[in-house]
Amino acid sequence: MSDFPVFFLHGLAYAGLLFLVSAGLTLVFGMMNVLNFAHAAMYMLGAYFSYTLLQETGQFWLSLMVCPILLFVIGALIERFLLRRVHTYGHLHELLLTFGLAYIITEVVKWVWGNYPLAVNIGGFLGDTVEIIGITYPVYRIFIFVCAVLVGIVMALILYKTRLGIILRAAVNDGEMVNALGINVPLVFMGVFAFGAALSGFAGVIAGPLLSTYPGMAHEILIDAFVVIVVGGFGSLGGAVVASLLIGELQSFGVLLFPKLSLALVYLLMAAVLIVKPSGLFGEKQ
Amino acid sequence: MMTQKNAHYLFIAVLFALGAVMPLVLKQYHLNMLTEIIVFALYAVSYNLLLGYAGLLSFGHAMFFGTGAFTVAVALIHIPGLSMWSAIALALAMTTAVGFVIGGLLLRHKGSYFALLTLAFNALFYAVATKWHTVTGGDDGLSVTRPDLALGFTTINLAGLTSFYYFTLVIVGAALVFCWYFTKTAMGQTVLMMRENEERMKFLGYNTNISRLILFTFTGAVAGLAGAFYTLHFQFCSQSAISVDMTTTVLLMTFVGGTGTFWGPMLGVLVYVILQNYLSDITDRWPLFMGLIFVFMVLFIPGGLTQIIQSIKTLFAGKRGTGKPIAVKEVST
């Protein structure tokens, strides 16, 4: 099968994007136990910000820097002024709040940018194609995968090799104790949520040129990202890596091999994992 | 002095009497809306049995609603001469089976995990409904005509809105009363107590997993009945009936009404449908306002409209309810 390597590379590119989206989601869920429904909406916001910036300046690298910062600020504001207020009511209300926010963000996006797809073109080196393993392949898709690998490595280093990482992991275990040791835990959580938002914005900028930018993009990736978390195990970064790769390749080859079933394949994989190992591939027992 | 229970029966009787005179008062357009409200009231009440009573946040309730809707549509199209009763019975059987299987698979998980998994399964159902073109009609949807209603001694033609409205009022109304009755049974009370303290219920010898599965299956069947009437009402069923949006709609309705009481979600549906109709006349941006209202309520009125009503009651009567979650009644043995 001559298409095989192409579809494999397509799968890798989509896996990279999935990881970028689900890494932030699983981080926030693992640290704060908040299932953030607004995550994909913020990802979409990142894509739209990037579209506007590209229209104005034409600098892709600039939007790759600026949009995550914007989303970081938005995330911090959401945590500080909305999420923290409902924290005392429990997880249900936090979830409902992020769900309402997703609703609002989607509508605002439709209002400001219109309810139709916008094409994002990037020129220069990234828009080119390159010859690898005997096939001509777009540089941009390889770039996505490289970005995902870099983000994954940086996150792992922060979490497991720095003092900040130790504080984060300790705060999850026993927030009160960490607070008593003189660390501002609410501030740490605000940072985590904002960082998750920034990651989603980064993923949005990356997604823009690959998929088109349209109001349904949030909904589309949200469910896939949720499936990644379920399959990989809730809150597990390593699980997110493996599950992203699995689902990216499954989507890609599903289209090639079973075009009719391709949509359902991902959910079938999820159902199978749940039956065999309810906590996900790398999840700890709940 | 009227007892609490009699007050409930009186309330139900008044609602039915009000419903019975409505066709004389309302125009076709509003009667249409009222039928929709009754159908969605059942959907919301079944959802609140999960959310308010059992404390289970599901993002997959449209699975059942949609399965009921599609079962009726597919059965009416493919089985010629199928009676109304059999179509509805088929929908109930189908959703009961689906509820049992899905519940068995997902109820091992709690809280956010459960919410996420139900969402993913809802997406699976949606994907199947969209792709399985030969059965579900895919994007085109299915058009059906309402069969006549055989009552043994006579047959009623349900093609007109008024006769169908009365049929809905009787059957869906009866289902609503049955749901209310269910919450008063030992089973319903068990579910409430499980929400409050599951460990203790286990120690008292209750099999909480089975109780939860029964509740989940029951609410699935009730939502399926609502879905069946949805198809019968619009005489059309498309994959939107089984979409995640249909779940989020019922979540909004239930939350606006308030999860704290049995009747709250019905109030929520009433307000939601009317608000949606009027807002969508005024502005294309109505989902934005719905979202804003929702976030405002999560932040400031977590008990929903019933909380407001309770506070007004408290203002005048001095005590009574608090808008807090449904409390466990003391069971005398």
What does this structure look like?
The complex is a heterodimer of chains A (286) and B (333). Chain A is built from 11 helices and 2 strands, in the order ααααββααααααα. In chain A, a hairpin with a 2-residue loop joins strand 1 and strand 2. Chain B has one domain. In chain B, the strands form 2 sheets. Chain B has a two-stranded antiparallel ribbon. Chain B has a two-stranded antiparallel sheet with strand order 2-3. The longest helix of chain B has 27 residues. The model of chain B has no long low-confidence stretch (mean pLDDT 84). At the A-B interface, helix 3, helix 4, helix 9 and helix 11 of A face helix 5, helix 11 and helix 13 of B.
Largest interface: A-B, 42 and 37 residues
Global morphology of chain A: globular
* CATH architecture heading of chain A: Orthogonal Bundle
Poorly predicted runs of 5 or more residues of chain B = none
| Oligomeric state of this protein | heterodimer
Name the average pLDDT of chain B: 84
Blueprint (SSEs and pairs):
The complex is a heterodimer of chains A (286) and B (333).
Chain A: H1 4-32, H2 39-57, H3 60-86, H4 91-113, E1 129-132, E2 135-138, H5 139-161, H6 163-173, H7 175-180, H8 185-210, H9 217-232, H10 237-257, H11 262-276
Antiparallel strand pairs in A: 1-2
Chain B: H1 4-25, H2 28-53, H3 62-78, H4 84-106, H5 111-131, H6 133-136, E1 142-143, E2 149-150, E3 155-156, H7 161-184, H8 186-196, H9 198-203, H10 208-234, E4 236-237, H11 244-257, H12 264-282, H13 286-300, H14 304-317
Antiparallel strand pairs in B: 1-4, 2-3
Short description:
The complex is a heterodimer of chains A (286) and B (333). Chain A is mostly helical and 286 residues long.
Key words describing this protein structure:
heterodimer, A: 286 residues, mainly alpha, ABC transporter involved in vitamin B12 uptake, BtuC, two-stranded antiparallel ribbon, 76% helix, globular, B: 333 residues, two-stranded antiparallel sheet, 14 helices
